Amino acid sequence: MSLNFELDGDEATTRATSKISRREGVDRSAPLVLNGKASFVELLGVYVNGKALVNEAEFAIENDLMTIKSDALPASGAFTLVVETKFQPVKNTELSGLYKSSGTFCTQCEAEGFRSITYYPDRPDVMSIFTTRIVADKTQCPVLLSNGNLIKSEDLGNNKHAATWMDPWRKPCYLFALVAGDLAMIEDKFVTMSGREVALRIYAQHKNIDRCGFAMGSLQRAMKWDEERFGLEYDLDLFNIVAVDDFNMGAMENKSLNIFNSRLVLASQESATDATFERIESVIGHEYFHNYTGNRITCRDWFQLSLKEGLTVFRDQEFTCDLHSRAVKRIADVRYLRAAQFAEDASPLAHPVRPESYQKIDNFYTLTVYEKGAELIRMYHTLLGREGFRKGFDLYFERHDGQAVTTDDFFRAMSDANSTDIEKLKLWYSQAGTPALEAAGVYDEVAKTYALTLTQTLPKTNDVNGAAENKKPQLIPVSIGLVGADGKDMVLSGEIKCEGDSKVTLNDSKTTAVCRLTDKKQTFTFKGINSKPVPSILRGFSAPVKLTITPELTTDELLFLLANDSDEFNRWEASQKIATSILHRACRKHNANESLEESDVNVTSDPSWAKYVDACRGIIRDATAGKLDRAWVEEALSFPATTQLIQDLAPGVNPVNTYKVRKAFAHSFALEARADLEAALATCDAEAAGLAYEVDGPQVSRRALRGYALRMLGTIGDVGGMLSTAYSAAQNMTDTVAALGALCGHDNHATHKNAAFDDFLHKWEDDNNVSCTWLRMAAAEAGAGDIAAVDEMKAIMARAVYDAKNPNKFYSLIGGFAGGNVPGFHADDGSGYAFVSDVLLSTDAINPQAASRMASPFAKWRLYDDKRQGLMKAQLQRLLAAKLSPNLFEIISKAMQD
Length: 898
Ligand SMILES: [Zn+2]
What we know:
Elements: E1 2-8, E2 11-21, E3 32-35, E4 42-48, E5 51-52, E6 59-62, E7 65-68, E8 78-87, E9 97-101, E10 104-108, E11 128-137, E12 143-146, E13 149-157, E14 160-171, E15 178-181, E16 184-191, E17 197-204, H1 213-230, E18 238-244, E19 251-252, E20 257-261, H2 274-289, E21 298-299, H3 305-323, H4 326-345, H5 367-400, E22 404-405, H6 407-416, H7 427-430, E23 436-444, E24 449-457, E25 476-483, E26 496-498, E27 504-506, E28 513-517, E29 521-527, E30 534-537, E31 546-550, H8 555-564, H9 568-590, H10 609-624, H11 630-637, H12 642-649, H13 655-688, H14 697-713, H15 720-729, H16 733-743, H17 750-764, H18 770-781, H19 789-797, H20 807-820, H21 822-825, H22 831-846, H23 848-853, H24 856-859, H25 866-881, H26 886-896
Parallel strand pairs: 1-11, 17-18, 18-20, 21-22, 23-31
Antiparallel strand pairs: 1-2, 2-8, 3-7, 4-5, 4-8, 6-7, 9-10, 10-15, 11-14, 12-15, 13-14, 16-17, 19-20, 23-24, 24-29, 25-28, 25-30, 26-29, 27-28
Helix pairs in contact: 1-2, 2-3, 3-4, 3-5, 4-5, 5-6, 8-9, 9-11, 9-13, 10-13, 11-14, 12-13, 13-14, 14-16, 15-16, 15-17, 17-18, 18-20, 22-25, 25-26
């Protein structure tokens, strides 16, 4: 495939020359069918072996397909096809294909953007060697980049120049990339494990180039990690990253030319929070890791998307775990999985990790494909162990390097490389829904046994094979420890009896057992258990399931686990369970109250409250004294989000009351723990004084604890002055955002909040990324003052800081409202729903991918009370009646299904 691009002002002219031959066994009468977006791409000519084809007589274009009749093709052998097109990248507001972002030409071809450039078999299993020549104006586009190696530079006179790139690795067109513009660059290098030197370059707008250093370091760490953990060495002499402002997704792994949303590259002490730094490192890693898992071995078709995404998310999670705190990363990932992917699984948008059908593949870049897909890979890892997993991974490359394959191929490699029977793990690819796991433990004092009966239930889902009776029991790895009265893990050295065709494996210290649940219900009996244990079930969250334990663990048992469990994930889980049960009781009590005020909620009379607060205060003190990992403590002390509580208690939930109950909980907690919170804040500030800013473990953990203390103190009435001071004294973005966040959500320090908000916007208005932080917070706070939420949102949209065509700004403002402003979005007059529908309609006309990504809050209508269900359904019907893009239509029509 040889591509020639002429970029002239706002226009692109292309000539695509490909060598094609009829596959063996394909009938002589079969036509050649190519994909191409006729509404965007103007066809200038089609040539076979140099002869121009005649429209209608020799080829036809219909429904975005070009069909070249068999008579127009040679009877046998290879032939040359030339397709010439013309289009206007500047008018490409969908940001799919070749478009212009802040003056820079750039591409996004996954999944089906290449057809907006030229007519081509746009599917991942058609792989070719690409050579790309780019011609452009020297002043406007001094930088010309594509995949592979630069093989030729030409000065064409007339202030024009050309660059020719050749990528020696075969690839599908979704991995094609082109960048042309006036960009600044930083360069460094990496020496691979075999001693080869690779040049590393990061390109960004001139004004942002001094914020690319952290991304460069992240890339070097990722390259080293992939060599050490998976034995994978980079396969070219050059690796480029380009940061652009207008990008629908996070980043894209195009071979050797990764294109990034600039929010995931640019970072400095002043502009990025610790969370942003960590996210940048993980996404730089993710895209780099795709070079093998995705690029060298790619997907046969888009149903297999999780083949590359689930595996690569698992790899980037492990990268972060190996570099930082494994427990904190695992907790954060699970919190996200439960809050977002479990919600998707419970909604009409539920689908298996390997979907059965789709209208627009763009709609399947989902949490299920990515996050649940990664959990599925993690289960292989848990079942096969680190070595067994690596054996399977190596066999996968031995068999399939350079091919486009399926999740079944991955499964077979893992299975063939190991003797363990994992057959029923395969069902996780095809069955949607979050399994429910029930664990019932019985201790027999006489026989000295602990018998644990595990039962799995798969829910009905809305997808093609979603009926409950179609679903078969899956292989679920359940990691278990038994904690003795002394607070130590019991050694599980006695015999373990499994029912049916199952097995248990023990970890090296024989304190954690992985029970393989393969049937609907099985009992695992541990012998030689001399005293009644407290069970620690699903350690490390060994499977993406909803666990219930019977008999339910008492508050005392949970506090015992919180203090003693050797598994840091389950220690965190214990704290969450106590807080959750208190919140659930209060939410149930107040759900139906039409005029609930925060002051009506009294959580302090809950039977578990005093013990919970005592334990948490102890943890705060220990963290302040440096006896506990402060980043873990921040996770352990944070209580479940409103969206999580709504999901737990659905259907029939009044979301605004849930929000008020949670606020009352935080307020009551802060009042009781005030002294400890103030001490934590003072200690953190004293420790930070005079210290140079670093993004390292101890400093990040300290800022996490400090942010928590500030946030909690912010819920108390008259502390606005203290928060204002914290805001003005902040030396870095983490502390700035912590202070701003603490000022939010409470009308009692509105003046302080408004002053800080104005100051922040004034400082960052011209920064496309940092201003998104303001938009997100402003969206969450809309309606907190005297102006109605929707009116305030409209006023923000009219301000210069907002740009409806920039996906980051759109996601921040509209997503920040629908996802982060519970009283505003769920206002009981339906105004929040109507507002978001209006915005979806107007965005759909500009950028359908962006619109459909923001439509998912409507798919959750069944969670809420009758009145809100009715209001949301009315908006869904209104949307359906409008002329929608296929992207948005698919989401909205699915959301309506019963
Ligand atoms: Zn990816």
